Amino acid sequence: QKGVQMAGGKGRNAYLYTLELGLYSSISLLISMFATKNGRKSLREEGSIFRYWTPFSLIPVTVRALGGVLTALVHKHAGATRKGFALILGLVMTGVTQSVVERERLSMDELLAMGL
Predict the structure, then answer these.
(1) Closest listed residue to residue 105, CA positions, set 115, 95, 113, 114
(2) Do the Cβ atoms of 15 and 73 come closer than 8 Å?
(3) Listed residue (12, 8, 18) closest to 77, CA to CA
(4) CA count, 13 A, side-chain hemisphere, 107
(5) Residue range 53-99, pLDDT digits in tens
(6) CB-CB contact of 42 with 33 (8 Å)
(7) Can you state the angle between helices 37-44 and 14-35, rounded to 10 degrees?
(8) pTM over 0.70
């Protein structure tokens, strides 16, 4: 966070930061695939690791990528206090949404936790 906000006085480019993190993650995954027996086996099989992918498989990949960009932008432009409040609000919204979708009442513990 500090590197994105402060580097060079005006901060690093959030998009470049996200690209770097994605590149490092990809390299790490590739190394683990070549280093493990199951990883090498999946690379040798016909159709490889994308055998069961459909066009719908790109939805979570795209959402995660956009989430990474959003995270980098939040790190660059928001302070720690605002990020803390955003995290708490996100957890509360997730709990309420899950309760509505699953048509279950929130437990007393969950309600008390939201109040804190």
Answers:
(1) 95
(2) no
(3) 12
(4) 3
(5) 889 998 988 888 888 888 777 777 777 677 778 888 888 888 888 88
(6) yes
(7) 100
(8) no
Is 109 in contact with 54 (CB distance < 8 Å)?
no
How many angstroms separate the CA atoms of 107 and 110, rounded? 5
d(CA 62, CA 82): 26
Residue type, 105: R
- Buried b / exposed e over 35-48, threshold 16 CB at 10 Å, is eeeebeeeeeeeee
Token digits of residue 34 = 């070549």
Cα(55)–Cα(23) distance, integer angstroms: 23
Q: Hunting for tokens 């309420």 — which residue is that?
A: 96
